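step 3/5: co-fold with calcium ion
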Amino acid sequence: MKTSMRYTIVGSFMLLIALLGSFTPPQAHALGDAAWARQSIYFIMTDRFSNGDMSNDNFGGFPSNRSVANQWHGGDFQGIINQLDYIKGMGFTAIWITPVQMQRNVNAYHGYWTYDFYGVDGHLGSMSLLKTLVNQAHSKGIYVMLDVVANHTGDFQPGNGIAAAPFDQPDWYHQNGDVRDYNDQFQVENYDVAGLDDLKQSNPAVASELKNWIQWLIGETGVDGLRVDTVKHVPKWFWADFDNAANTFTFGEVFSGDVGYVADYTNYLDAVLDFPMYFTIKDVFGSDRSMWNIHNRFKDDWRYNNKYTNGIFVDNHDVHRFLCDASGRPGAGWDKWPQLKAALGFAFTIRGIPVMYYGTEQGFDGCRDPLNREDMFSDFDTSSELYQYVKKLNSVKRAHPALQDGTQQERYVTDTFYAFQRSKSSDEVVVCINNSWGNQTVNVPGLSNLPDGTVLTNRMGSDTVTVSNGTISCSMSEKEVKIFTK
Ligand SMILES: [Ca+2]
Ligand SMILES: [Ca+2]
Ligand SMILES: [Ca+2]
Ligand SMILES: [Ca+2]
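step 4/5: write tokens
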């Protein structure tokens, strides 16, 4: 009896070993918030990224035409699959892709005008190909975040039908007409945004179906997290339910520079895209404004439920690209890359998850939507200066836990200079940023956990400094970012 039991246990153990040897355990779909805080995200507008299948370009009678800026252009899931190595090569560990739901409009290339919640748009591919994309990304160590819209469908009512079943019932919508006063939160939540048919979450059937849908979508696709659209246009109570139903990481778009207004949503969704910081980055790095604006911005960090999981970005698809608005070198306004590199150096090293909009690495500079949604298509140049710069930032971030979710403390600030220290376990990082168009040398005092005599190396270059009296001397060229580590 005893012998046979031991045989069974040993046998089971050996069977387990055999199984482990032949199978890799499936990757967890619900990547936790803490793990998301350590990622860096590449944001892709699928229609504008890479066309891997010409046969789907005119799906549903809505043709692609690259000479029309607000029409479909042909990018698709296969195109993203084809470029996963380009993305991985830049050091990103996650992608966020625009909504995949079926559209029904020649201008719905962006995916934010849902017709059928339960269909995948044929321009992009099929559900099966989306699963392949997710699996291929996972096999390369890249997580996938899906963009979802639960505020509205496309603009069908009145006069042009209604979204597909089960969202084909008029009393599932508000029918209040357009928002007229954007300072009136009731209108913002319950009226239409630019004619887009506004879903009535207060109808229990609607709330219930939206939760069924998100569970279905996550179950089908195996994605690791959600970017949630038009968050300020839906009552907060719904987002708490939605996040709960989704049972995954969610960060929301709350388009506002008012930090109190934005931060409150982190009590309902897991996190937000940090629009207040976006406006600060645009001012400070894009227009050479004072670094004290950064100091002031960080003073509001206490307002966020978790400041480590907000998305940090220098631009996105709904605003001018950074290089459109940047003021450029005084007297040579076309020379803007030094400002962009300083902004990216800041965005990739501060608390939060860096989210970089596709094409930034190729110097895209479009202004108004849709001109800020340029085609990548043939621009996958891995030798470009900006691609290489971003690759360096990601590689330093990956090598240093302190730069992922370590604590952050300001160490020195002037109008043209900002330094901070990040710490996690035994990892210590000091970041120095020169926002001036001239060289300057600045002493950064008050460093902690770095005994005198410690030699730190700038990982964006190779120069070293030695800690003395808890201070290092940062010798900076114009618009330079240095990342010092042990
Ligand atoms: Ca295509
Ligand atoms: Ca609404
Ligand atoms: Ca409408
Ligand atoms: Ca969640």
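step 5/5: annotate
The longest helix spans residues 2-22.
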